UniProtKB/TrEMBL annotation:
Domain of life: Bacteria
Keyword Ion transport: yes
Lineage: Bacteria, Pseudomonadati, Bacteroidota, Cytophagia, Cytophagales
Positions of transmembrane segments: 6-24, 36-56, 62-84
Name of the protein in its database record: Cation:proton antiporter
Species name: Belliella aquatica
Compartment(s) where it occurs, according to its Swiss-Prot or TrEMBL record: Cell membrane
Amino acid sequence: MSTYDYLYYIILPVLSISVLIIFIRFLMGPRLSDRVVSLDLLLTTGIGIIAVYSIHTNQPTFLDIAMILALIAFLGTVAFAYYLEKRERND
């Protein structure tokens, strides 16, 4: 089994199943913070799927897209943490 077969037949289905589980958590999250964390995890898993696809198809330009998504996910998480901190100070 080559590395490409391993990526295609093992890692990609595991990431797909984890996306389904995370999305269920996103829908069922009782608090806003649970939903934001699951959304961040969805983006991180999507970055992993893009990276696997980039390696499998030998297209390194997709890794640039993955880096941009990682930056957006990081900035979104930081903005949400700032919002929570500001909300706690007002209460």
